[in-house]
Amino acid sequence: MNTPKTGRGHDRVAVTETTRTAASLETQLLHTSSTASATPSGSGSITLSDEGQARLVRLSGDINVTLREQASAVLLQVAMSTYPLIIEMQDVTGIDETGIAFVYQLAAVEDEGHQPIILRGAPTTVLATLGDLGIIDKFVIA
């Protein structure tokens, strides 16, 4: 069976598996998080832009389930690019399990491409959660 290839040479099956893993992580977080709220509040945004020879994913405001469409669009574009990734979190005011799952998905896509992932300005609560999940080593903290 011939599977269409993405711009990075990964097949759609790999992206689907990454999405399934992230969905599993999201489910796990829903059951184990005692501080995250399932009720969206405030507003936030997820954007993708270029920063020199890197892609910049900027998260700002409340990163929650209401941003799922933005997250999906950005994730697809990241998966099809070959440039290193910077995740800017300096302006994040809140993040729920869906937001953490999105950061995990970005790491999983980049891990497949063996690209460094710079996590810039992440709140200490996010760093602690990524550490608790055992994935903090996938990031270069700046």
Automatic annotation (TrEMBL):
InterPro entries given in the database record: STAS_dom, STAS_dom_sf
Domain of life (superkingdom): Bacteria
Chain ranges of the STAS domain: 44-142
Chain coiled-coil ranges: none
Protein name as catalogued: STAS domain-containing protein
Organism annotation: Rarobacter faecitabidus
